[in-house]
Structure formats: structure tokens, C-alpha cells
Amino acid sequence: xxxxxxxxxxxxxxxxxxxxxxxxxxxxxxxxxxxxxxxxxxxxxxxxxxxxxxxxxxxxxxxxxxxxxxxxxxxxxxxxxxxxxxxxxxxxxxxxxxxxxxxxxxxxxxxxxxxxxxxxxxxxxxxxxxxxxxxxxxxxxxxxxxxxxxxxxxxxxxxxxxxxxxxxxxxxxxxxxxxxxxxxxxxxxxxxxxxxxxxxxxxxxxxxxxxxxxxxxxxxxxxxxxxxx
Length: 229
Known about the structure:
This protein has helices spanning 16-25, 37-43, 45-53, 68-81, 94-103, 122-127, 134-147, 160-167, 193-198, 208-211, 216-226; strands at residues 7-10, 32-35, 57-64, 85-89, 110-114, 152-154, 172-175, 203-206. It has 229 residues and is α/β, with parallel strands linked by helices. The protein has an 8-stranded parallel barrel, surrounded by 6 helices. α4 (68-81) runs parallel beside α5 and α7 runs parallel beside α8.
């Protein structure tokens, strides 16, 4: 893939006019945009239709987790809406993941299993009294997703190599928590675009560094240039 096809812009803003302006300004630079829960709850199909009219691919990041039948129905709706990528929590279990796969129409949306959120670290594991390390848990959940015929997983850059070793190089790894420089926020396990791609990430998700920038195009150019190696 070309560098500009390897990153996903997270639309972490709720003002539709700002979103339109941002998407249009990045039209020739970005192909995939992420719609999260807040944005989807506010605008619903309207935001999906807007991105489709702009001929963009849509990463619907709802992190679904429910009983198998409910997840199956949700995946069918996502297929009908023309969603390209959809996230589902792997902690929902093997049966739920398999129901998701069997419910989509054709090969879309690509199904990506959420492993351990990048806002969590070993302190959370200790608090929850989980004896596994983060790497062990992510590897286990990734293998379960692969065996259920998912297309890939969401994980931090720190776990990419273990996932690829366990699940194979063709199993997609999408990496959020991308920062251009050190920052204090809710992301614990984060990396730069270059670090993530060099570690084997297939896609990276970049939100606030772009949406909060005075010149988003310049930030996108810097990210694209950093991915050329």
C-alpha cells in the first residue's frame, strides 16, 4: 500500500461543518476516515452518507460487544450501510465473533477485533486481578479472532510483532494511540507513526494530532513522509 493508504483519520470532532471542511481539505491526501461512537450517535447515517458521497472508506469504530444474535444483526446493518471496517470486542467470546463473520454480506465490512484498549496498562491488569501480561492476553485474543475468521485486530504498536508471529503476516493489525510526539493524555500504550509501521502495523489511526492542528494538511504530509522508508 501507498503511505497515504496506511493511515486512518479519526474524526474526533462533533461539529458537522468542521468535519466537512476537514474531509474536503484532506480529500487528495486521505482515503479512510474513522467514525466513533459519539459522532455516530449524533449524526448516524448522515455522516456515513456524507463520507460515501466523498468516495471515502469508512472505519466504523463502535467496539461492539453483545450477545451473538445482537452482534449478528449489527453486522448485517453495517454491511447494508456500506461500512468498510468495523470493530468488535474480542472479549465477547468465540461464538460472538463467529456470528459476526457469518452475518456479513460478502467480505465487507472487514471485521477487526478489539483486544486490549490502548488506554489500559499493567496497572489495570493488576487492579482487575488478571494474571496474564498484556502481551499474553493480546496474543490469545488475536488468535481467537483469527480462528473465528476475523480479518485482523486492534492493538498497540507494542504487541504487533507477537500478533504477527502468532497469527501470520497477512492478519491485519490496526494501531490506534498514535502520537507525533510525547503527550499527556488518556493513551498509555502509544507510538509514533514511524514506530508503528516499522513494527509491522498495516494501518495506523491518527485523530487528535490532526483534528486539533491549525494546519491539518501539513500534519498529514508529515505523517505520510514519515512512513516512507
